[in-house]
Amino acid sequence: MNQQKIIISPAGFKTDIPKNTVRDRFFLQTLHEAKQDFQNLEDIQKIMEILLLTAMGAIGVSEASAIMIAPESNREWTVRRGMENGNIQELRDHLSDIMKSANFEKNLPSPIVICRVQKEEILPGCLSSDSDILIQWVIEDSYIGLAQFGEKILFSEYDNDDIDFLFKLFNIFTFSLHKLQFRSVIGNLNALLVKKTEELNLADRHADYSKKELDRRVFHLQSLYDLTQDMADLKDTNQIREAFLMMTSGIFSVEKALIYMVDSNDMKSWLSCRGVVKENIRAINPEEFETLIKASRSVHSKSKNAQIITDKKILKIAVSQFEPAIGLVFVIKEDFIGLIALGEKITGKDYTDDDRELLLTLTNTFMVFMENVRSFEMIEKLNSDLEKQNIELNRTIKALTDNRHQIELLEKAKDRIRLFLHKEKEKSGRVSVADIVIILCFGTILGVIYNFSSPTGIGLIPQYLFQSHSQSVSIGLAKLKYDEGKSLFVDARPSEFYNQKHIRNAVNLPLPLFDFVYMMKFASIDPETLIIVYGRNISRHYDEEAAIKLKARGHPNVRVMTDGLEGWRQKGFPVSDEN
Question: Structural domain of residue 283, as residue ranges?
Fold first, then answer.
């Protein structure tokens, strides 16, 4: 034959040779077994090996090879029986050129079987010298392959039955590849579906978690809002404690709870409780108080206002009626320490991290209100004290004003009397005894009136004559107390004398301004402080009167220094001269 022949399907061949029934049955049985083998395999390499062996055994060929490539993934499968490796390499290197030179078209049915007549013209340098058949198949854009078969063992020509068998066998092979590809696609889709299902379940779990988290946040905000609303209008610390304890007990569903608060400056304490008999709760002892102080310092050192307590020893402070399940210590302005203890929940559940976070948030809000109310109470107290001081000051100013008016009247009367006496003196050449008596009586009356009206007047009968004398102290003992620095020295003389000279560091307490000066300088002094008073003259014992008034004000340790300022100065003890 001097020209090539391309066989597309067995229908293109016509022959008058009767069919061999036995051979046809053999081919059909072989095709059936090959189909079964293809269906049970998922490895393309094994399928191609069975394909090549089945074809070689059925048509009686000793040499054959096949190559298939997946263009998208650049994967390659090769099978060789009875041929050298170089032939496979040539097929691999020139697969595209072979297809073009063989006039392959992708729109033709696949597989396409080609019978070799003039090999060098069709596939020069690519097929083995003993190759007679070349088969090409294309499965869409997924696979493209070539297979070649050598001469038959009996050196006979390929007939139509051989071509028909190879055509059908490769059709089954391509169908199996299609099916395997579909199963791979379905597997990938199933894996993708499983992945998407897992992602959906994960998203659903995230949605549930987000919903629970949102519900938790809403509950926290609602609890915080309710607590703020309840405490916003309260102006008393006891009411705020009770309101906070009631809200906290309801939020966490606890039956027993308490708040214990201590002022570390004056050791005062306050207690509020629910579900516990308040009278049965014992007072804390000094050791427990020191433990609470240390816990508060540890909170302050961590730059926090409140902290959950993990030390059971601290929780046991003032909590003897029930076993607290959770506790919290807080500090307000470094001196106001508080302890919150909550019992077990009614539901029996443990406290979660969310519960601890909510308790901290509520406690911080409670601390803000407590601090504001304490500041408000302090301002009210200061205002009340200032109001009392203003009242006393107004009374003193009024008394001074009235006394000034009386003094002015007396000064005018004195001027008139002086003028009258001057005139009478001019009228009279000499002064008689009667005139002297009249003048003395009139002067005595004026002096008594002035003495009674003046704030610095001297009583005609000293008060100390009707009262027990104050205890005295010698100058030597007074100097010892002075050196110790724990006693208070009081100068009871009028301020004019005090300004001239006084014991160093002594406080002036003039009797006319006793109430005013005492309120300004002595109200905050410890009543147990030793007070040493001095200052008297011939006409008046200021020190005795001042000592009597100080004792009346609740100062039992008042002593009068004998010999007064003059004796002190003669001893060479320290004095101050304002001038």
Answer: 231-352
